[in-house]
């Protein structure tokens, strides 16, 4: 009887859904990738991708919000199991976390008030003396520090939302951010109607990495491999594309 009970217990542990929920860390201030709806729930592209991956792995997801600079510390100290927050895969971050294959890849753009910056190509000398905003702790901040800080006044903000608010309020001349966030999350809004993308796409793999990946704790090979297999599956069966089209009709983010 004892042996039968032990065997039954082992079978129950192996059933889908018996494992602890996967705690998925994201910022929640990066529309349309992730934001809060009117009821305070996280919604967006990253949320749907997280749910699709967890469904494929037959694991329950628990979405948890952290400030951007707290995402990796939360992963490292065990408050989260993975980060799915449009985090670029870079060599510097790979020293602290392990990444899956990319699940998205988007360019960066400068944004400015319409007619304020008449430059086809944005270079440090062409915008010398301008006030340039960026979200602190991002790859965009490191890019600007390395390439532009000598020539411009660099202003940092805790979140992208605060940076856009500063741009709309006249505190900035330009803002560097993800193209999708600016194009979908700012320009179509009442606050962003007098603004535009300026210059061409900002491409710098040495700063922005090779796309956005899902971060897991260093050495958590089992979870990373599960996520990679689930990612391959949702790409192959069209789930990823359906989620993408739900939010991005004009271009692809993969």
From TrEMBL:
Superkingdom as given in the UniProt entry: Bacteria
The keyword Signal belongs to this UniProt entry's keyword annotation: yes
InterPro entries membership: Solute-binding_3/MltF_N
Swiss-Prot/TrEMBL keywords: Signal
Domain Solute-binding protein family 3/N-terminal: 21-251
Family designation: Belongs to the bacterial solute-binding protein 3 family.
Protein name (record): Amino acid ABC transporter substrate-binding protein, PAAT family
């Amino acid at each position: 009887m004892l042996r039968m009970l032990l065997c039954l217990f082992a079978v129950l542990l192996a059933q889908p859904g018996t494992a602890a929920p996967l705690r998925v860390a994201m910022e929640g201030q990066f529309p349309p990738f992730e934001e809060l709806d009117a009821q305070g729930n996280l919604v967006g592209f990253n949320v749907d991708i997280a749910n699709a991956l967890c469904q494929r792995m037959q694991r329950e997801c628990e979405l948890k919000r952290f400030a951007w600079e707290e995402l990796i510390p939360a992963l490292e100290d065990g408050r989260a199991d993975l980060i799915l927050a449009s985090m670029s895969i870079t060599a510097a971050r790979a020293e602290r976390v392990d990444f899956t294959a990319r699940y998205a890849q988007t360019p960066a753009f400068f944004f400015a008030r319409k007619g304020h910056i008449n430059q086809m190509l944005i270079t440090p000398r062409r915008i010398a003396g301008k006030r340039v905003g960026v979200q602190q702790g991002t790859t965009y901040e490191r890019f600007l520090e390395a390439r532009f800080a000598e020539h411009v006044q660099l202003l940092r903000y805790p979140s992208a939302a605060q940076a856009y608010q500063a741009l709309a309020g006249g505190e900035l001349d330009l803002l560097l951010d993800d193209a999708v966030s600016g194009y979908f999350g700012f320009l179509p809004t009442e606050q962003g109607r007098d603004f535009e993308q300026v210059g061409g796409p900002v491409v710098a793999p040495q700063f922005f990495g090779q796309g956005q990946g899902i971060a897991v704790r260093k050495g958590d090979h089992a979870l990373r491999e599960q996520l990679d297999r689930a990612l391959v599956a949702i790409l192959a069966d069209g789930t990823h594309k359906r989620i993408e089209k739900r939010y991005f009709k004009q271009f692809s983010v993969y």
